[in-house]
Every structure is written in structure tokens, then in C-alpha cells.
Amino acid sequence: MEKVDVGVPNRRSQADKVGKHKYELALLHRVETRLIRIERQQRIIFHGLQGYFRFDRPLVEEVGCESELDLAVVSLIFESGSGGILAKDIPSKLPEIFQGLERHRILRIVRRVNVNVEKAFGRPIIEKRGKKWAFNSFGVAVWGKSREEAEDPFKDSWDKGEVEGDGNEN
Hints:
The chain has 170 residues and is mostly helical. It folds into two domains: 14-48; 54-160, Arc Repressor Mutant, subunit A (Orthogonal Bundle), CATH 1.10.10. Helix content is 55%, strand content 6%. It has nine helices and three strands; from the N terminus they run H-H-H-H-E-H-H-E-E-H-H-H. It has helices spanning 14-18, 20-48, 57-64, 68-79, 90-93, 103-121, 137-143, 147-151, 157-160; strands spanning 85-86, 126-129, 132-135. It has a three-stranded antiparallel sheet. A hairpin with a 2-residue loop joins strand 2 and strand 3. Helix 4 (68-79) packs across helix 6. The N and C termini lie far apart (94 Å). Residues 146-158 have low confidence and may be disordered.
């Protein structure tokens, strides 16, 4: 009896069937969906363990501020105190290299910093009080501490009542 080689037919890949570009787009969409799900789970874990985390100013600066201008604006808002500062007054108080900014650019910077910090830590650091921008209690607790104070939970002057206001004034 003679052996006949019956070959397995070559199968086309999914990329060949639907097209390489369309296949790569579908793959990218699956990866992005999985990443979003992982980030959501990470936020849930973070919120559950939030009392155990200690944040310090360099970490918040790294996460929230993308440039020197962002850092200068956020520092100026922190220095304004619990009363806050108007967006139109910020450009005049910035260093000379940042002079000439319009009000809407300041508002974009504040929103961008808040979005970045909220994505990472679950809470923004700056809030609007009337027409002024000011740090909330989370922002004061994080931004106003040095590294040593951030590690000691009993030195939070905002929570002990040494700083006036509760951080939620409108």
C-alpha cells in the first residue's frame, strides 16, 4: 500500500481575513479595554486602602504638574490661603518668565492639575470658592507638609482646627 501525504491546508490568520489594519485596531481596542478595567480595579483598591497611604508634596507635584508653569500656578494658589485667589490676579503675581497669561489659560492649568491628581489619588487638590480658587483640605494636608510631616499623621493642622475653615466653604 502506498502512503499518500495528505497535507493540512494552510489556514489564513485573522489579520489576513479582515485586513492587517483592521485587525490591529481591534487588538488595540481590546488592550485599551483591559487597561481601563485594570485602572478601575486599581482605583477601587486605592479607595479601600486610602487611610493607609501617606502622600507628600513631591509625589503630588510629579503626578499633577506637567510643567514649571503648572507648579508656579499651584504654588501661588496654595500661598493665597483658605480665602483663595481670583484667576485674573494670578498672572500678575507669577514670575516674569510667565507674565502675559490670559485668565482662560490659568483655568485650564488648574483643571488639568486637578484632573491629573484626581485620576491618581481620587480627589482633586484645588476647588472653587465663589469666584476664587483655593486648596481644599486634602490639598492643604498634602501640599502644606514636608516629607517628615507627611509621615506623621498627627501634625495635620487642618484636621486639628489650627487652620480656619473646613475646606468646603463656598
